[in-house]
Design a protein that fits this description.
single chain; alpha+beta; 3-stranded mixed sheet; binds flavin-adenine dinucleotide; AcylCoA_DH/oxidase_NM_dom_sf; acyl-CoA dehydrogenase activity; Acyl-CoA dehydrogenase
Length: about 425
C-alpha cells in the first residue's frame, strides 16, 4: 500500500489540472453566454474549440482502457486506443474534470459516450467500430444509452418491456424509453438500446443490446425531462417512443440474450468516472464555501468564526478525503483484480460519493445565503445534478442491497447459531 501518486499518475493528473485551469475555467463565462443564445439544442462552439486544443495536446479519450485489459483482440483494436491510462490513473484525472460541468466533454470523456465507447471497444465487431466507435473517438458524433422505461421499475432491468423482434435480415424495435441522456444533442447519432429478444428465456437471457441510429424512421423524441427545472441542454434527458424501428441484424451487440453481460461490463468503470468527478464537484463546493465564509461578517464577527462553520468545514474535508480514498481503492482493485472482484467497492463508492457531495453542496449553499440557491454560484445546479446520481446508474438502495448481500454471504450463521424459523423462512429465500 502506497498513498504517494506515481510519477505517471501525477503527470496525467497535472496535464488535465493545468488544462482545466488555463483553458476551461477562463472559458466558463463564454460557455454560459453561448448556452444562453438562440436554440437550446445546439453545438456550443467554445466546447468545440477546447476539444480541438485538448485533442491536439493528446489529453483525449483518457478513459479508454489500456490495451492489455484482456477483453479484446490486440490487432483488431490497435487503432481504437486512448493513451492507455489505468482506472487509477484516470480516476485522478476525472476528479480534475469534475470541477467544471462541461470540462469532461472537452477531453472527450463525458457520459454517456464513455460507457458506450467502452461497449463498442469491448464487444463491437470491426464494422460496428468503424461505423460508430471511430467518429465517437474523434468527438464528431455523440451517443445515448436507452435502458430505462417509464412504465416499469427499471432499476430491476429484468422488467424492461421494449421488444426487439427478428424479421428476416432486420430487427424491429418497439417500446418507450425515458431519461435517455444526451439524445437532445444534434450530434447524437447512435443509441445503444436494451430490449428483449426472447420473452420466454431465463430471467437474465431475455435481454439484448442493439445499435440504433437516432435518425431511423420510428424513433420519435416526445419531450425532454427537466431536472428540478434544468433542461441540461444541449444534451438533455429525453423521452423517446420507438415505433417499428427497423435496424439491420448486424447491429446486434455480442449476440442475442447477452444484454445483461454487456450491462455489467458497461456500468463498472462508468460508475467510478461519475464518482471521481463528484469528488471534484465537492472540492469545488468546499472551496466556494470557505471563501464566502471568510468574505462576510454577521453578528459582530466574520461568519467563518462562528464555530458551527468550523465543524461543517472540518467534516467536509474529512468526508472528501475518505471518499477519495475509497474511490481510488475501487479503481485500483479494478485494475488489479478486475471489475467483478471489485464489485463491492464499486457499489460502495457509487452510494457514498453523491451523498457526500450533496451534504457539502448543501452547506455551501447555506454559507452563501440566498445567493446559494440562485444561479450565480453554480451551487444550485451542482446540487440538482448530484441528486440525480443517487438514481442514475441504479438507485442507492440497489447498490446497498448488493453490498449487504455480499456481507451476509461472508458471515453466515455458525453451526448451532441458525434459528430454524429463519433459515427455512423468508431470509433463506432471498439468499
Ligand atoms: C438525470 C438522469 C439521467 C439518466 N440517464 C439515463 C440514461 O442515459 N439511460 C438510461 O437508460 N437511464 C437513465 N436514467 C435512469 C436511471 O438509471 C433510473 O431512473 C434508475 O435506474 C431507477 O429506475 P426507475 O426510475 O425506473 O426507478 P424504479 O425502478 O421505479 O425505482 C424507484 C425507487 O424504488 C426504490 N428501490 C428500487 N429497488 C429497491 C430495492 N432493492 N430496495 C429498496 N428500494 C428500492 C428506490 O428508492 C428507487 O429510487 C437517468 C436518470 C436520471 C435522473
Amino acid at each position: 500500500m502506497d498513498f504517494q501518486p506515481t510519477e505517471r499518475q501525477q503527470y496525467w493528473r497535472d496535464r488535465v489540472r493545468n488544462f482545466v485551469q488555463d483553458h476551461v475555467r477562463p472559458a466558463v463565462s463564454t460557455y454560459h453566454a453561448q448556452d444562453a443564445e438562440g436554440d437550446r439544442w445546439k453545438v456550443i462552439q467554445v466546447v468545440e474549440d477546447l476539444k480541438a486544443k485538448a485533442k491536439d495536446q493528446g489529453i483525449w479519450n483518457l478513459f479508454m482502457p489500456p490495451r492489455n485489459d484482456g477483453h479484446h483482440h490486440v490487432e483488431e483494436s490497435f487503432e481504437f486506443e486512448g493513451p492507455g491510462l489505468t482506472n487509477l490513473e484516470y480516476a485522478l484525472c476525472a476528479e480534475e474534470m469534475g470541477r467544471i460541468g462541461f470540462a469532461s466533454e472537452t477531453f472527450n470523456c463525458s457520459a454517456p459516450d464513455t460507457g458506450n465507447m467502452e461497449v463498442l471497444h469491448r464487444y463491437g465487431t470491426r464494422d460496428q467500430k468503424d461505423r460508430w466507435l471511430a467518429p465517437l473517438m474523434q468527438g464528431e458524433i455523440r451517443s445515448a444509452f436507452l435502458m430505462t422505461e417509464p412504465q416499469v421499475a427499471s432499476s430491476d432491468a429484468t422488467n424492461i418491456e421494449c421488444r426487439i423482434d427478428r424479421d428476416g435480415d432486420d430487427y424491429v424495435i418497439n417500446g418507450r424509453k425515458w431519461w435517455s441522456s444526451g439524445a437532445g444533442d444534434p450530434r447524437c447519432k447512435i443509441a445503444i438500446v436494451m430490449g428483449k429478444t426472447d420473452f420466454s428465456a431465463g430471467r437474465h437471457a431475455q435481454q439484448s443490446m442493439v445499435l440504433m441510429p437516432l435518425d431511423a424512421p420510428g424513433v420519435n423524441i416526445l419531450r425532454h425531462l427537466p431536472v428540478f427545472g434544468y433542461d441540461d441542454a444541449p444534451h438533455g434527458h429525453m423521452e423517446i417512443e420507438l415505433k417499428d424501428v427497423r435496424i439491420p441484424a448486424t447491429n446486434m451487440l455480442l449476440g442475442e440474450g447477452r444484454g445483461f453481460e454487456i450491462a455489467q461490463g458497461r456500468l463498472g468503470p462508468g460508475r467510478i468516472h461519475h464518482c471521481m468527478r463528484t469528488i471534484g464537484v465537492a472540492e469545488e463546493a468546499l472551496e466556494k464555501m470557505c471563501r464566502r465564509l471568510q468574505a462576510r461578517e454577521a453578528f459582530g464577527k466574520p461568519i467563518y468564526k462562528h464555530s458551527v462553520w468550523e465543524e461543517r468545514v472540518a467534516q467536509a474535508r474529512i468526508d472528501i478525503d475518505m471518499t477519495r480514498l475509497l474511490c481510488l481503492k475501487a479503481a485500483d482493485m479494478m485494475d488489479k483484480v478486475g471489475n467483478k472482484a471489485a464489485k463491492q467497492e464499486i457499489a460502495m463508492i457509487k452510494v457514498q460519493a453523491p451523498n457526500m457531495a450533496l451534504r457539502i453542496i448543501d452547506n455551501a449553499i447555506q454559507a452563501h445565503g440566498g445567493g446559494g440557491v440562485s444561479e450565480d454560484f453554480g451551487l444550485a445546479k451542482a446540487y440538482a445534478h448530484q441528486r440525480t446520481l443517487r438514481l442514475a446508474d441504479g438507485p442507492d438502495e440497489v447498490h446497498a442491497r448488493s453490498i449487504a448481500r455480499m456481507e451476509f454471504a461472508r458471515h453466515t450463521p455458525l453451526p448451532g447459531e441458525a434459528d430454524d424459523t429463519l433459515s427455512s423462512g423468508d431470509m433463506g429465500a432471498t439468499r
